[in-house]
Write a structure and sequence with these properties.
By secondary structure, the protein is an alpha/beta fold. 37% of the residues lie in helices and 13% in strands. It is built from 14 helices and eleven strands. Helix 3 runs parallel beside helix 5. The protein is globular. The relative contact order is 0.16.
């Protein structure tokens, strides 16, 4: 498959294939998966959102012990979050009390901060100096852009609409991941409280190609060599794939998550705020279905993410997928259970 990688960014990175293996925060993007993807000629990407500065540096060191090839680090852009009132926490606690009882968990204790310190994380990224820094949920501040420039780290933003892509381009990014509605995991929407624009990848590419001048990376529902070809022919310079790699041997996907993914090739997914307070696409399960009926008890992002962490952890420990955020996209096809390198070879065999 001939790769349209003439754009400066991908040329500079020296990638063999126009592929980013998606940053999947919270487990699947293990150092082994990131290293294997990069070693195989793609760009491996660390989902660093839930790591503190020291953990980001330790993770990067583990990747570099396994390969000298380029890799990316991805973080969540922080937003000022509304005050979470005691009444809201009480409502959320009441709505999830029977799950915690079932999982033998104590009553939840929730206090701010609800997420890692972004500035400290970003400082760690500057020290690690990955081949790229990518981000979701908005724009990097002008100061951060300047710091990344000074360190020589290219920037990749994430857009779900043409308006978001234009804002990213104006802010000075080197490339933009266009995230179609089909994509698994968190939706990159800038405003956590806005409705989802629900634009599929094909339409998103059509709306952006020719209008946005920086290289575009297609993400969402891409599972096969054919899917890659379609995205590249539609004007993307590269693709980003996550779900396809979830069951590779190197992925850090938990046992119950893996089992649910492999149960059937008909993976029923939808978007939900139930786990984190922000729209994210995953396999339907008990927690998603039941919490959707109690929308008023779902805390804003990222408070809900911290609030449900004990439930998700206990579910994994019990080997149950009932309460896990089983992030997955809408792509069709059987999941690969061999090595990351073998999957990448298959995808680009022609």
């Amino acid at each position: 498959m001939s790769a349209p990688m003439d754009s400066n960014l991908f040329h500079k990175l020296g990638l063999k294939h126009p592929l980013i293996v998606a940053p999947m925060a919270g487990g699947p993007s293990s150092p082994e998966l990131v290293a294997a993807a990069s070693a195989a000629g793609a760009l491996g990407a660390m989902g660093g959102a839930y790591y503190n500065a020291a953990a980001i540096e330790a993770f990067a060191a583990q990747v570099r012990q396994q390969t000298d090839k380029p890799f990316a680090i991805n973080l969540f852009i922080p937003h000022s979050i509304p005050e979470v009132g005691a009444d809201q926490v009480e409502r959320a606690a009441a709505a999830t009390a029977h799950y915690r009882a079932e999982l033998e968990l104590p009553a939840p204790q929730l206090s701010a901060p609800y997420e890692e310190d972004f500035d400290a994380q970003f400082e760690a990224v500057l020290r690690v100096k990955p081949a790229c820094f990518s981000f979701v949920f908005g724009l990097l501040s002008a100061d951060h852009v300047r710091e990344a420039r000074k360190a020589g780290i290219p920037l990749i933003g994430t857009a779900t609409t043409l308006a978001e892509a234009r804002a990213l381009e104006d802010s000075g990014v080197d490339a933009i991941t266009l995230q179609g509605f089909e994509a698994g995991g968190h939706r990159g929407i800038f405003d956590a409280h806005a409705p989802d624009p629900e634009i599929g990848l094909r339409d998103l590419l059509a709306q952006n190609v020719g209008k946005i001048r920086v290289p575009l990376i297609a993400a969402g529902g891409i599972m096969t060599a054919g899917d890659i070809r379609v995205a590249l022919q539609a004007g993307a310079q590269a693709v980003q794939m996550g779900t396809a790699f979830l069951t590779c041997t190197e992925a850090g996907t938990s046992a119950p998550y893996r089992a649910r993914l492999l149960e059937t090739s008909e993976r029923r997914t939808r978007t939900t705020r139930a786990f984190s307070g922000r729209f994210a696409r995953g396999l339907e399960n008990r927690f998603m279905n039941e919490m959707e009926t109690k929308a008023a008890a779902i805390l804003p992002f990222p408070a809900q993410n911290k609030f449900t962490r004990d439930i998700r952890g206990a579910s994994t420990a019990k080997g149950s997928a009932d309460f896990l955020s089983l992030w997955a996209g809408t792509g069709k096809g059987d999941l690969w259970q061999g090595s990351t390198a073998a999957l990448i070879d298959r995808l680009f065999a022609q």
